[in-house]
Amino acid sequence: MCPDKTRAKKQKQLIFPADDIHYPGQTNHDACYIPECVRQHNGEPLYILVAHWCLQQQDWVQRSQISEAFHITARRASYLMSYLRNKASRVVCVCRRQTLSNKA
Protein backbone atom coordinates (compact mmCIF):
# COMPACT_ATOMS: atom_id res chain seq x y z
CA MET A 1 0.00 0.00 0.00
CA CYS A 2 1.35 3.42 -0.97
CA PRO A 3 1.69 6.10 1.69
CA ASP A 4 -0.72 8.98 1.33
CA LYS A 5 1.31 12.04 0.37
CA THR A 6 -1.46 14.50 1.21
CA ARG A 7 -1.78 13.12 4.73
CA ALA A 8 1.99 13.44 5.28
CA LYS A 9 1.91 17.03 4.03
CA LYS A 10 -1.03 17.88 6.29
CA GLN A 11 0.65 16.29 9.31
CA LYS A 12 3.79 18.28 8.61
CA GLN A 13 1.73 21.48 8.59
CA LEU A 14 0.11 20.56 11.88
CA ILE A 15 3.44 19.76 13.51
CA PHE A 16 5.07 23.05 12.55
CA PRO A 17 2.27 25.64 12.43
CA ALA A 18 3.08 29.31 12.78
CA ASP A 19 0.52 31.50 14.52
CA ASP A 20 0.49 33.94 11.64
CA ILE A 21 0.09 31.45 8.77
CA HIS A 22 -3.21 29.88 7.68
CA TYR A 23 -2.90 26.46 6.09
CA PRO A 24 -6.07 25.67 4.14
CA GLY A 25 -7.65 22.25 4.26
CA GLN A 26 -7.69 22.07 0.46
CA THR A 27 -4.35 21.27 -1.13
CA ASN A 28 -5.12 23.40 -4.20
CA HIS A 29 -5.10 26.60 -2.09
CA ASP A 30 -1.98 28.38 -0.92
CA ALA A 31 -1.21 29.31 2.65
CA CYS A 32 -1.79 32.93 3.63
CA TYR A 33 -0.94 35.39 6.39
CA ILE A 34 -3.33 35.88 9.32
CA PRO A 35 -3.48 39.47 10.59
CA GLU A 36 -2.83 39.79 14.31
CA CYS A 37 -6.30 41.18 15.02
CA VAL A 38 -7.99 37.89 13.99
CA ARG A 39 -5.45 35.33 15.23
CA GLN A 40 -7.72 34.36 18.12
CA HIS A 41 -9.92 32.72 15.43
CA ASN A 42 -7.02 30.63 14.09
CA GLY A 43 -8.29 27.25 12.96
CA GLU A 44 -11.40 28.66 11.29
CA PRO A 45 -11.74 28.60 7.49
CA LEU A 46 -10.21 31.54 5.65
CA TYR A 47 -13.58 33.03 4.72
CA ILE A 48 -14.49 33.24 8.43
CA LEU A 49 -11.17 34.93 9.22
CA VAL A 50 -11.83 37.41 6.42
CA ALA A 51 -15.37 38.03 7.72
CA HIS A 52 -14.07 38.77 11.23
CA TRP A 53 -11.39 41.07 9.81
CA CYS A 54 -13.95 42.93 7.67
CA LEU A 55 -16.19 43.40 10.70
CA GLN A 56 -13.32 44.93 12.66
CA GLN A 57 -12.69 47.50 9.91
CA GLN A 58 -16.07 49.15 10.66
CA ASP A 59 -16.19 50.51 7.11
CA TRP A 60 -16.75 49.28 3.57
CA VAL A 61 -13.99 46.89 2.51
CA GLN A 62 -12.48 46.44 -0.93
CA ARG A 63 -10.72 43.39 -2.33
CA SER A 64 -7.40 45.25 -2.41
CA GLN A 65 -7.59 45.73 1.37
CA ILE A 66 -8.27 42.03 1.94
CA SER A 67 -5.49 41.13 -0.47
CA GLU A 68 -3.03 43.34 1.37
CA ALA A 69 -4.06 42.26 4.87
CA PHE A 70 -3.97 38.51 4.16
CA HIS A 71 -1.11 38.54 1.61
CA ILE A 72 -3.23 36.90 -1.09
CA THR A 73 -3.89 37.81 -4.71
CA ALA A 74 -6.61 40.32 -5.54
CA ARG A 75 -8.32 37.56 -7.51
CA ARG A 76 -8.50 35.28 -4.47
CA ALA A 77 -9.72 38.19 -2.33
CA SER A 78 -12.44 38.86 -4.88
CA TYR A 79 -13.45 35.18 -4.79
CA LEU A 80 -13.65 35.29 -0.98
CA MET A 81 -15.86 38.39 -1.11
CA SER A 82 -18.13 36.67 -3.61
CA TYR A 83 -18.31 33.57 -1.42
CA LEU A 84 -19.17 35.65 1.64
CA ARG A 85 -21.84 37.52 -0.27
CA ASN A 86 -23.51 34.55 -1.95
CA LYS A 87 -22.84 31.21 -0.28
CA ALA A 88 -21.71 31.55 3.31
CA SER A 89 -24.54 30.57 5.65
CA ARG A 90 -22.46 31.44 8.75
CA VAL A 91 -22.01 35.06 7.69
CA VAL A 92 -24.44 37.94 7.35
CA CYS A 93 -23.16 40.68 5.09
CA VAL A 94 -24.28 43.96 3.61
CA CYS A 95 -23.20 44.82 0.09
CA ARG A 96 -22.90 48.21 -1.53
CA ARG A 97 -22.95 48.46 -5.29
CA GLN A 98 -21.29 51.48 -6.76
CA THR A 99 -21.32 52.37 -10.44
CA LEU A 100 -18.03 53.80 -11.61
CA SER A 101 -17.96 56.27 -14.45
CA ASN A 102 -16.09 55.17 -17.57
CA LYS A 103 -13.21 57.58 -18.09
CA ALA A 104 -12.05 56.10 -21.41
TrEMBL record:
Which Pfam families does this chain map to?
CaiF_GrlA
The alphabetized list of GO BP terms reads:
DNA-templated transcription
**Gene3D superfamilies for this protein:** Winged helix-like DNA-binding domain superfamily/Winged helix DNA-binding domain
Protein name stated in the entry: CaiF/GrlA family transcriptional regulator
Organism this protein belongs to: Salmonella enterica subsp. enterica serovar Rough O:d:1,7
